[in-house]
Amino acid sequence: MNSIILLTSFGILNLFIGFSKSKKIIMPLVLLFLAIVFVVNLIGWNDTQTYFERMLTIDNFAIAFTGVVVLTTILVLPFAQRYVDQQDESLAEYFSLLLFSLVGAIMMVAYENLLMLFVGIEILSISMYVLAGSDKKNLKSNEAGLKYFLMGSFATGILLFGIVLIYGATGTFYISEISSAATAQSNNELTSPLLGMGLLFTLIGISFKVSVAPFHFWTPDVYEGTPTFFMAFMSTVVKAAGFAGFYKLMSVSFAGAQDIWFPTLIAMTVVTLAIGNIGAVAQNSFKRMMAYSSISHAGYLMIALLSFNDRSENAILFYSLAYSVSTVAALGILKIVADQRDDVSYNAFNGLGRTNPLLAAVMAISMCSLGGIPLTGGFFGKLFIFSAALEQDLLWLIILAILMAAVGFYYYFRVIIAMYMREPSGERVQVSALASFALIFMTVLTFVLGIAPGLLSNIL
Amino acid sequence: MTGSLFYFLTFLTLFAALGVVFSKNPVYSVLFLILTFFSLSGHYILLNAQFVAAVNIIVYAGAIMVLFLFVIMFLNLNMDTEQAQKKSVLTKVAGAISGGLLLVIMIAVLKDAEVGSYDPENFDSQIGLVENLGHLLFTKYLLPFELASVLFLVAMVGAVMLGKKETQQRHF
């Protein structure tokens, strides 16, 4: 709750700071704001609080995921250096929208009432629609903004219809009270078919937001058109918060009705894994590849959601953190390189190992982490997810996921090959000190998660 | 009386909604949409939700529809431009199949749904009035109500940011 209040007031404050002539002060200030929120958020650890007629519950689950999204935002920000250098007029607005969208993300991980989930998803989505189209002179960015807006509002409509049907069947918006109706439904004691319909529509709505196939079709186009800086935010924060909210909904409300949704979700997981990984192979643009890669990681997170035991909460947390850190590092480097070489394909990285050893090393490590090589965070993320699934006897799904991870090596390693085995395609790339620091921090974090996963694997 | 009024309003709503989809002229579509909103407001009144009915007319049939009409006239969409872009048969067939599947599922679900009844003894006829709604909004639903302001702020900041004229000082 404190973090919501702080983020909202900092966002408004930041809009006013945007009136000042010099834009240089904004980025350090926003970093400071986020650091304050991060600390204030952690203060409430082990102290579960419920606010405003049980609308929000700030428990360890909410605090941990709030920590992940705020930390991710802190790590994304240094890559906005180019906007600062160009004295971009809308700089303060960009950052304020990021701060406001974090309010939505926190609502999505801490909600206790479906209304809060809906308002949270909307705050996050509307900021993303705007930021996707924020590069006004670029036709692709306009297309991305419009496409995301139209399809997203349609998905919102479906989600809202689902929530209304659930309300019609159970008479409540509280997720804990829905659960008893869902259990009764599953035992065929009380048959209100509206609940199943509502559940299906809600699933469709949320799946769209976290880009799970078959509702992923917007992802490559939108991510490709979105400015890289905002894509780094979109593909990490939205996904982490979305999956936390998704998991909370399924585990609290619909745990008893597992036989209704389990076949649907398992089919969606298989399709997501296949489309994400095989689609990524065919891409020549690094940015599009990262979009497909985000779909495939949604598939792995779905496995944790499906396995549905006491391990899956921790697995989702660990995986989101490891995935967010590596994705931010990879897209941050893409942003730096693409700004100077004007290219988002694999060729932009040609010979980066010779011109910029630091960038190339960080990129290689984050690619290894996304692929799931041991000693990096991504490996243990996948390991935890698979061990959670193993307890649920989903061995065939794990084998499929491992096969798909092997496909993943192909496209992740294409970048490494381009960086170390091709002739340089351009001059040395300039990196700001803050961005280098963030990149080194992310590398260290990836290794810490990969060497001492016990630090985070059992905290929930 | 109420029952037949309900069926009349339902018929009107469905007819107008179909009219929105099937009219060739976009301005007719918008006019049908206004009719849809009015008949939906009739449903709200039947449900004893007078305030929602009034808001529905003021906000949707009033403000949003004017915006719609304005945009349509602005874009100058007439019958010629609409017919110029032909959709492929395959798209139509695919749309009909997926829409039909959804329809089948909805019918299968709704035919078994129990329609709740109300208790005439304890029924509070004041339930849909502004006073009760406001009371609920400022007590039980205070937090989502307040946080919706963040949503509107985001929409406002975004609209201004996207709509603002760029000064050319960016490429100095």
Question: What's the SSE blueprint?
Answer:
The complex is a heterodimer of chains A (460) and B (172).
Chain A: H1 2-17, H2 26-43, E1 49-51, E2 56-58, H3 60-76, H4 81-85, H5 91-110, H6 114-132, H7 139-170, H8 175-186, H9 193-209, H10 219-225, H11 228-253, H12 258-281, H13 286-307, H14 310-341, H15 352-355, H16 357-371, H17 377-391, H18 395-421, H19 433-451, H20 454-457
Chain B: H1 2-22, H2 26-46, H3 50-75, H4 79-84, H5 89-110, H6 130-138, H7 142-163
Helix pairs in contact in B: 1-2, 2-3
Notes on the protein architecture:
Chain A: This is NADH-quinone oxidoreductase subunit N. Chain A: Its EC number is 7.1.1.-. Chain A: InterPro entries: NADH-Q_OxRdtase_suN/2 (IPR010096), ND/Mrp_TM (IPR001750). The complex is a heterodimer of chains A (460) and B (172). Chain A has helices at 2-17, 26-43, 60-76, 81-85, 91-110, 114-132, 139-170, 175-186, 193-209, 219-225, 228-253, 258-281, 286-307, 310-341, 352-355, 357-371, 377-391, 395-421, 433-451, 454-457; strands at residues 49-51, 56-58. A two-stranded antiparallel sheet of chain A has the order 1-2. Chain A has one domain (2-457). Chain A contains 20 helices and two strands. Chain A starts with a helix and ends with a helix. Chain B has 172 residues and is mainly α. Chain B has two domains: 1-94, NADH-ubiquinone/plastoquinone oxidoreductase chain 6, subunit NuoJ (Four Helix Bundle (Hemerythrin (Met), subunit A)), CATH 1.20.120; 125-165, no CATH class. Classes of the chains: A mainly alpha (460), B mainly alpha (172). Chain A binds chain B through residues 4, 8, 11-12, 15, 51-53, 55-56, 86-90, 93-94, 96-97, 100-101, 103-104, 107, 113, 115-116, 119-120, 122-123, 126-127, 129-130, 133-134, 136-137, 145, 191-194, 196-197, and chain B through 105-106, 108-110, 112-114, 139-144, 147-148, 150-151, 153-155, 157-162, 164, 166-167, 169-170.
How many domain units of chain A? 1
Quote the distance from N terminus to C terminus of chain B: 73 Å
| Helix and strand run of chain B | HHHHHHH
- Strand segment tally of chain B: 0
Could you give a short account of the major beta sheet of chain A? 2 strands, antiparallel
- Give the overall average pLDDT of chain B: 84
> N-to-C SSE series of chain A?
HHEEHHHHHHHHHHHHHHHHHH
**Radius of gyration from the alpha-carbon trace of chain A, in angstroms:** 21 Å
Q: What name does CATH use for the topology of the largest domain in chain B? A: Four Helix Bundle (Hemerythrin (Met), subunit A)
Shape of chain B: extended
**What would you call the quaternary organization?**
heterodimer
Which residues of chain A form runs of ≥5 with pLDDT under 50? Answer: none
Strand content of chain A: under 5%
What is the correct CATH architecture of the largest domain in chain B? Up-down Bundle
Side by side, the strands of the main sheet of chain A go 1-2
The major sheet of chain B is characterized as: none
Number of helices of chain A: 20
Keywords (chain A): Cell membrane, Membrane, NAD, Quinone, Translocase, Transmembrane, Transmembrane helix, Transport
Membrane topology (chain A): Multi-pass membrane protein
Family (chain A): Belongs to the complex I subunit 2 family.
Subunit structure (chain A): NDH-1 is composed of 14 different subunits. Subunits NuoA, H, J, K, L, M, N constitute the membrane sector of the complex.
